[in-house]
Amino acid sequence: MAAPKKGRSHGAQSRPGRTLAFILIAMVALTGGMFLSGHTTPRLGIDLAGGTSITLKAKSEPGQKNAVNQTNMNTAVSIIERRVNGLGVTESEVQTQGSDNIIVNIPKGTNEAQAREQVGTTAQLYFRPVITVAAGAPTPKPSASPSGSDKDKATDKATDSSKDKASGSPTGTPTPSATPQGRAVTDGLKADSSPSPSASSSASGKPTPSASPTPDAATAALQKKFTDLDCTDKAARSQVTSGVKPEDTAVACGKNSSGQWEKYILGPAEVNGKDVDKAQATINQQTGAWVVNMDFTGGGSKKFAKITSKLSQQQPPMNQFAIVLDGDVVSAPSVSSTLSGSAEISGSFNQQSAQDLANVLSYGALPLSFQEQSVTTVTAALGGEQLHAGLIAGAIGLLLVVIYLVVYYRGLSLIALASLLVSAVLTYVIMTLLGPAIGFALNLPAVCGAIVAIGITADSFIVFFERIRDEIREGRSLRPSVERAWPRARRTILVSDFVSFLAAAVLFVVTVGKVQGFAFTLGLTTVLDVVVVFLFTKPLMTILARKKFFASGHPWSGLDPKRLGAKPPLRRTRRAPGSSVGPVDTKEA
Question: Residue 147: what pLDDT?
Fold first, then answer.
């Protein structure tokens, strides 16, 4: 059993060049990949590169009491952070300030414009049945018509509350006068729906028993809002959606497939965003257009099946349901059969807008509405000064380590410095590649983690060198000392690095923001320390142990037996004939 083990050990000792070649090839490959990717410097965080700082102020919707509380603010911070990071923006900072403000810091060079659009988007999603639809411009009044034709008179009669002539209007091009028919549809969908802008009398001209002054006033107000609405005006669109509750009949705007604005009267919401399980941007295989596919939860699927079953039995436009996001109609597809489980949002999407919509739907709606208070540009001046000071401190620390290695270890310091150089190159290249790969951004705490790693790496070399010196003090020559010292040093290095990596992992999990950058860098450099010691330092030490300068114990090699106080070489004596005493070691004078 002893001979094969010795042979394997000899084979391992005789091939350190292969291990060195492997790590050098890996370094060249990684460096080449860095240059080919077009990224030759690490991605910087907001404290080093600057960026954009957005201040959002929370506000309660009408009817909500005490909605701006700590729980809702923390939920909003979590959702906004997931949205921003979902765009590939890492090292972003999202935190509360005071009781009703949220600060969002986005590093320069990332998707700042997209992130700004999404951070304050409430993402309240509702599926509402369409009652009527018309062109987005304000509806002309009959008196404004220059012709005074019979068609205008007919329209005027159709909107008169005492005569119900709207049922005779064409359904191919719905107009506001189609509202009475929409009223019937809405009543069928939801018995307690709000009154629509229809006449309060029946088709026979007899008064409806349930008619009252309050519903009539609400109906007239809604009709006027719809008639006067100009969807091409951004301020008008924002005002018309303010304070609308899900259970209300609503007026909203949206663009059709041709990009033209249209205005809608919509029934109460039947399905909301909480019923959506996940959303994904894909390409419709039939049309080739970008769409957003949504999967519903169990309860949402039942609601969606119920509403689409009723809509599929109606005539246009009452067979449509509007997908309303933050008060705007993003799509209003028609329904011809009962649907359940999933839905598709189509419209004038490109890849980016489809992915943005899927992103906000996937991470949920904000529990509060937010108003953008300020947007400021953050300069990197302060961070640059701190980085400069940190680099000076790191350089001083590195210089002290080098001086210590040279004075105490002499020739062995060359091995330590070469290993530090390899570790630095690998750290720089990998950090640069992680920028475009996972969005890693280097901030000040991350730089501190890299500086701390210098001590961790140097400690591994010192452990190995001291084990070798211990073997030489026992009277062994250099080559056996290297191989005998390695197993003992290896265990110590692995235990030490495991503790450092475990601390970095725990710190990364339990902290947020910039501190995670410190933990990530510390963990990365700890792993690289193991790689460098095993694949570079040990093989290089094995090769140099064969060189006369080190093997002979030159005074400047750092391995001089006299300076180390080595014992005389160990000798094995032969067993005397008939003696029962085993081999003993004697010291030479």
Answer: 45
Contact present, 328 and 244 (Cβ < 8 Å) = no
Please tell me the distance from the alpha carbon of residue 108 to that of residue 376, in angstroms, as a whole number: 12
Q: How confident is the model at residue 122 (pLDDT cuts 50, 70, 90)?
A: low
Instruction: Write the DSSP string, 29-80.
Output: HHHHHHHHTT--SPPB-HHHH-EEEEEEEEEPPTT-SS-SSHHHHHHHHHHH
- Note the helical H segments in 340-380: 351-362
One-letter amino acid for residue 579 of the chain: S
Q: What is the pTM of this model?
A: 0.56
DSSP conformation class of 399: H
How far is it, in rounded angstroms, from Cα 508 to Cα 191? 53
**Residue given tokens 């969005």 in the structure block:** 439
Dist CA 285 CA 282 (whole Å): 9
pLDDT top residue among 583 and 497 = 497
Residue 38 contacts residue 363 (beta carbons within 8 Å):
no
Residue 471 burial (10 A CB sphere; 0-12, 13-18, 19+): buried
- Could you read off the pLDDT of 169-188 as tens digits, one per residue? 333 333 333 333 333 333 33
Phi first, then psi, for residue 186 (nearest 5°) are: -65, -40
Residue 192 C-alpha from the chain's centroid: 42
Q: Using the structure block, give the residue that is written with the tokens 């933050």.
A: 326
